[in-house]
Amino acid sequence: MALMQEADSVTAELAPSRSSISAHTLVTTLLCILFAIMYLDRVNISAAASSVKDHFHLTNAEMGVIFSGFSWAYLASVLWGGWGARKFGAKATLVVSVIVVGIGTIATGLAGGLATLFIARLIVGLGEGPAFPAATQAMRNWYPPARFGYIQGITHSASRLGAALAPPIVTALIVLGDWRLSFVICGVAALIWAGFWWFTFRDDPRTHPRIDPKCLEGITVSLPNRRAKTPLWLLTKRMFPVTIVMFAYGWTYWVFVSWLPLYFVNQHGTNLKNSALLTSALFFAGLIGNTVGGVVSDRILRRTNRNRLARCSVILVSLLGAAAFITPTMFINDLRLVVPLLAGAMFFLELTIAPMYAIPMDISKDYAGLGSAYVIMGVGLSGIISPVVFGRLIDLTGNWNVPFATGVAILLCGALAVSLLRPDVPLVIPHSDEKQAGEA
Questions:
Q1: What band does 256 get if pLDDT is binned at 50, 70 and 90?
Q2: What letter does residue 402 receive in the DSSP assignment?
């Protein structure tokens, strides 16, 4: 008996060391993995585009339709993420969303033609649409305002890591097996994440068994409330300028995500392996840009206490910088110059993300997730139009510079729309709705 008691005592002493990872570290890690998997499952279709196109004998325009299938469902389902996180919590909403993504990605690998490929990509978009608003609501509950830019930046950097790893991973799996295998493996990864999230996350950080009380300083928690009214029209009016700016960002973003591998193959004559490596290099530049954008925005906020300056200055530099770096690529054919220029464009383009996603977190505690849906709607809307227009322009002109020039013009329009953003003005909800909101 004494030996058993001594063993229990030793076990109790060792337990903290085995569970030494803090709740915030665990949640941050899981969110980063989530964003990486979401983007891996989003861009794997472009990494496998050459193989898929050859297998089914598709045109560029038909590939554009497949690319856009994701965005149709993504745009249609994005509001449900913020709504679901408010009503049922980020935990349940994310589990359901990621399971749908996993199923859709596996279905992509089982597709038999253009129609089934399009449907599979619709399913992936249907799952991914709610994921990021739900994740934003989770961040709003777990992090203080001074860290909003940081957490959005680092998680979106992880998403670009997923995008950067997708080309070499998918290419390696194609070489080892075939393009279908790559989608099955990517889909299974999403399902595994959903299981981990369900057993380790709490909507209220104060109830997490590993929480450090010091990490609760400065946070305000909005708990799920199924009876809460949703101020949809009020949010729509406030967030519409955000959607406009993100449409401008998204146009060029989707060009990069969907067409870069084929661009390198067709415009510069690279093979499948080299095009995958070059595409990865550009996404790594975007990875750095995401983190830098969040850190710089938060630093400006801490020094000036001016939300509008902290968010909008970074966004403006981002859009103008991306346009400036893309423009020379239309007049240069040397890959040694084109790749660094496109990497610079990707870096500046991705500076946009963290401050843009921080804006709905700045203006509202209870509806940060739903507000972020309007950020995503701009990207989703451009994702429906941009790939199809890009593919059609290439088929009609055979010139890859024409759609790039269109992207530059839209970036400049987005830069003008930055003046409409007001992260410094909190969302004011009528008193009757505030009582329904059940603030924690």
A1: confident
A2: H
